[in-house]
Amino acid sequence: MNKKKVILGSCGIIFCLIGGSLFALDHFVDRKMILEQLYSNVEKQTGRKLTLTNLDIHIFPWPEIQASQITLSNMPNGKNPDFITAGHLKADLNIWSLWQKKIHFQTIELSDVKIYLERDAQGKKNWDLQSIEKPKDISAIDANKVSRRKWKWQFNNVQLLNVECWYDDAYTHKNAHLIFTQAELNQLESNKVKFNINGSHHHADFTISGRVSHFDELLENEGIVSQPVKFQVNLTQYIRKQNIGSLRVSGTLKNLVQIKGYDITLRGTILNLNDLNQLLPHANLPSIENITLSTAIKDVASDNDPVAKPQINQLQLHTGKIKADFLPADLQLTSTEIIANDLNSNVNTQITGQLYGTMFRWSGDLGSLRSLQNNFFFQTEKMLSVSGKLTSANYNLELNGNIGGNTPSLDVNLNLLKYNNYFKGIGDINAQNIKYTGKITASFPLILSFFMHMSNEDLYNIYTNGKLTSNSIKVNQFHFDNFSTNVAWKNKELALTQFQLANNVSNFKGNILYSIKQAPPTITINLKPSSFPMKWMEAYFAIANVYTGQVTIMGDFFSKGYDWQEWKNNITGKLGLLGTDGKLEAEGLKHYIGQAASTLPLKESLATQCLAVRAQINPEILYFDTLTLQTNQFALNGQGDLNIPDQKLNLHFTPDIRLAAISASAPIRVGGTLSKPYTTFDKNKNKVFSLNINALTKSVVPTNYCKDALDKARNPLGISLKK
Q1: Domain AsmA spans what residues (predicted)?
Q2: E strand or H helix that includes residue 389
Q3: CB 481 within 8 A of CB 470
Q4: HEC string of 61-121?
Q5: 65 with 93: CB under 8 angstroms?
Q6: DSSP one-letter string for 702-719
Q7: Is 15's pLDDT higher than 90?
Q8: Which position has the higher pLDDT, 526 or 477?
Q9: Residue 215 has pLDDT above 70, yes or no
Q10: Residue 13 to residues 2, 10, 37, 95: CA-CA distances in angstroms?
Q11: Going by C-beta distance under 8 Å and a sequence separation of 6 or more, which residues neighbour residue 680?
């Protein structure tokens, strides 16, 4: 027989057998039974009802199942009647699997899919699918156990086209809308499932791809699986078709629902975190440029400690410029670097930025990564270990110690090279070796998530208790080599007690209380007896040089305001000033008493027995109840006031002139301003001056005004109030 005829005949027989089998199969399949079992299984496993129409099984030209108008119902009382809808389903059918009562799809394709994710006001989620265990009907099983043996379902690949996903959260009042142009899941039969998703949201596009091993076991088990699932996910974002960042997440997972037993590595780069707000509009992400991240996180929970916090085994973060609401308005970070390569290495930090337009750099560490995690995650009293240097053109600072916790201890060394932002009314401040030793604690937990939402009220709950010292402070041209004070910040109040600022010619002592409990802030100063050259005060207030020598000043002062200028305009208080063994400068006195100086026995410089001033300070008036200047030749006693805004003088003096047995006095009034004073004589019974001749009583001792005047100056609180 001809071989060609044999081959052709054999092929013809095979084609007839296959064609006949397929024709018989089309009649063999019970579509109604398949749908009923499909509906029942889905409702039992999810608690939701599945519906579809137009279920067709095509044999020619290849085996395929098609359906349309597929819906899966929503949770009870949901906003939308449906949870998922799809316009069309198409699946490639493995024809040979039907003989084993198994429906095996090579590829399932769903198109025009709509997914409605929602959470109600009580926090219930519609994607929490609950299985329903119905009581078994024994009679039904017996009646159908032969003819209605259950079919098995199996599929390899799933492809979703034109997917829209809505998210509506009544619990947090957020919503979102995502569009997936294509989503593919491949190799679902194997232990290595692959997926690829292309999508968009608002003005942003993204792709997600990766693979997962042992995915079937993870889905079938609600608890911890024996074999960890390995996964890898790559996320790439696009804005106007420009790649703005990529993230790669890989690791293992033992529980999908509760996110347990994970060991995850995250690496990636993002051009600007703020761009992701177009992808996730409700995230309100800050503007952080050029992010490079690499971190490894592990779940260390166990049966003995089921709620253990995660463990960060590696942390590497680099960023460019940062603009965020949680940073002060005048602070801008231009670059940051945080590196800890393993659990036992130190968390090294490098930060550069600008504060009030001045560049600065921080270089230091926050202790070991292990201790940092223990403090943040495990300990009740949070403590942060910190050491490093902060430098700029204007200052440099060194920190070493612990902040927060039960046993805080912090050492700070600051060199303030030049600072005049807040104290322009005073002038430039230059200080070296400012040291702080003490404690800083916080009533709030020191956790990273907290700092993202920090407010001024939180900062006010930081408490300090320590001591400040320095051996070199310069304010304008005045240099001090001894500065010390106790520092306490608590309940929105800063207290500087036992304050001392001294050099070889001056020594300031007192207590300062600064409070921000109310607006505007207030400052209270209690000035203990302090000594300094009178020329300092004359230079600052533009007073003519009347007295040369050391003076002692004391008093209580109160003011309110946001800066030095407001403090000056709102100051109230009581002042005492005294000096002994100084010198009266004739030219300075002549500047204020003018022609009256001719009635005094003045020399160019005259030794004084005392200078005593007591005054009450109001916002506009400086009232003097004591103005005494006494020498061996004469004494001046007076009182009056100074209008502070206009610098107007209104002073009255009574001179007491003693020349051997003769004494004379001519009451003097000083008016005008500090820079342009004028003098008149106060008339006493129509006489310009009085003259007393004590020839018969040469032993009369001149009146000593110093004792009473100095006692008044040493007790400024005794001055009577003047409005």
Answers
A1: 2-199
A2: strand 383-392
A3: no
A4: CCCEEEEEEEEEECCCCCCCCEEEEEEEEEEEECHHHHHHCEEEEEEEEEEEEEEEEEECC
A5: yes
A6: PP--HHHHHHHHT-GGGS
A7: no
A8: 526
A9: no
A10: 17, 5, 36, 19
A11: 668, 669, 671
Helix (H, G, I), strand (E, B) or coil at 539: helix
The pTM of this model reads 0.60
Predicted confidence (pLDDT) per residue in 494-518, tens digit: 999 999 999 999 999 999 999 998 8
By the 10 Å C-beta count (0-12 exposed, 13-18 middle, 19+ buried), 209 is classed as middle
At 177, give phi and psi (nearest 5°): -140, 115
Beta carbons within 8 Å of 478's beta carbon, 6+ residues apart: 503, 506, 536
Per-residue confidence band for 89, with pLDDT thresholds at 50, 70 and 90: confident
Residue 633's pLDDT is what? 82
Report the first-to-last Cα separation within the chain, whole angstroms: 138
Q: What band does 3 get if pLDDT is binned at 50, 70 and 90?
A: very low
Distance of alpha carbon 326 from alpha carbon 449, whole angstroms? 11
User: Largest Cα–Cα distance in the chain?
Assistant: 178
Q: What is the DSSP letter of 684?
A: B
pLDDT of residue 539: 83
Does residue 29 or residue 593 have the better pLDDT? 593
| Residue 33 host element (H or E) | helix 31-46
Encoded tokens for 437 = 């030793």
CB atoms within 10 A of CB 402: 20
Q: Which helix (H) or strand (E) holds 608?
A: strand 605-617
How do residues 94-139 score in pLDDT, each as one tens digit? 666 666 666 667 788 888 888 888 988 888 888 777 776 555 554 4
Residue 317 has pLDDT above 80, yes or no: yes
Tell me which residue has tokens 């009577």: 720
Instruction: Strands of 170-301 (E only): list them.
Output: 174-186, 192-201, 204-213, 229-239, 242-253, 263-272, 287-298
